[in-house]
Every structure is written in structure tokens, then in C-alpha cells.
């Protein structure tokens, strides 16, 4: 799983949360570092902050979708409105969470994402 957020405290907290739940977690504080990670590792579940320094989370999602149409990408944002949700859907996000979000909701989203990928049987194909 990949978590991208420029807030160090939140990034560290999410990394610990998901690691403690048994997930392998990669982290990045900006879109460029996230893209570097994705070039080296096949990651199918992602949580991306929308407000990142440099390239935004919206543009990062668009870049990821060029190479990975199957991966499950979740948006995290502290600023939301209906048009932001529409923009996220158009960019290729699968889900949208408003900060602060209950950690149990994020754990459930991660669990359901991996369940979906297993149901789709994506791991027997080279999809990323």
C-alpha cells in the first residue's frame, strides 16, 4: 500500500496504523517521490492527499491511472465540496475521505480494497 501526505505527523500515524494492521506500507511526502516508488514497486492500494507540494494529488492520480487502471486509489482531503468530489472521480479516484477521518474507516477501506483485488484475481496477471 502507498500513503502520500505532506503532513509528517499524519503520514507517520497512517504508516503505523496500516503496518500494525499487517499491511506493507510505502510512504511519500510528495507526488514526485510517490511516482518514483510506483516505478519500482507494484502497489495496488493507495491513499493520496489532495493538497501536496508541487504536483497535486489530483494530478498524481491522473498520472497513476495512465499506467494502472486496476489499482484502488483513495483521496484524503481536509477541504471538500461536491465539485471536489466530482473532480476526484473524474481523475480516477475510487473513494474520497474528508480529514479528520476515523481510523477504523480507513482500515475498513484498506481491507475492502484488498478483498476486491483478491476477488478480481488481479495478482495472477501482470497488471501494473
Describe the secondary-structure layout.
Layout: E1 2-4, H1 8-20, E2 26-28, H2 31-40, E3 45-49, H3 57-67, E4 72-77, H4 82-91, E5 95-98, H5 103-120
Parallel strand pairs: 1-2, 1-3, 3-4, 4-5
Helix pairs in contact: 2-3
How many domains in all?
Answer: 1
Shape: globular
Low-confidence segments? none
CATH architecture: 3-Layer(aba) Sandwich
* Secondary-structure element series: EHEHEHEHEH
What does this structure look like?
This protein is α/β, with parallel strands linked by helices. The chain has one domain: Rossmann fold (3-Layer(aba) Sandwich), CATH 3.40.50. Helix content is 48%, strand content 16%. The chain is built from 5 helices and 5 strands; from the N terminus they run E-H-E-H-E-H-E-H-E-H. It has helices at 8-20, 31-40, 57-67, 82-91, 103-120, and strands at 2-4, 26-28, 45-49, 72-77, 95-98. A 5-stranded parallel sheet has the order 2-1-3-4-5, with helices on both faces. Strand 1, helix 1 and strand 2 (26-28) form a beta-alpha-beta unit.
Brief synopsis:
This protein has helices spanning 8-20, 31-40, 57-67, 82-91, 103-120; strands at 2-4, 26-28, 45-49, 72-77, 95-98. It is of the alpha/beta class and 128 residues long. The model has no long low-confidence stretch (mean pLDDT 92).
Amino acid at each position: 500500500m502507498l500513503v502520500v501526505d505532506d503532513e509528517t505527523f499524519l503520514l507517520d500515524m497512517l504508516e503505523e496504523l496500516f503496518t500494525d494492521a499487517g499491511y506493507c506500507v510505502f510512504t511519500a511526502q510528495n507526488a514526485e517521490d510517490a511516482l518514483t516508488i510506483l516505478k519500482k514497486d507494484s502497489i495496488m492500494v493507495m491513499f493520496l492527499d489532495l493538497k501536496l507540494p508541487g504536483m497535486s494529488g489530483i494530478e498524481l492520480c491522473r498520472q497513476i491511472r495512465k499506467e494502472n487502471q486496476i489499482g484502488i486509489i483513495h483521496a484524503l482531503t481536509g477541504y471538500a465540496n461536491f465539485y471536489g468530489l466530482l473532480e476526484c472521480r473524474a481523475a480516477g479516484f475510487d473513494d474520497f475521505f474528508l480529514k479528520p477521518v476515523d481510523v477504523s474507516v480507513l482500515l475498513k477501506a484498506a481491507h475492502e480494497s484488498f478483498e476486491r483485488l483478491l476477488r478480481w484475481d488481479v495478482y495472477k496477471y501482470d497488471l501494473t
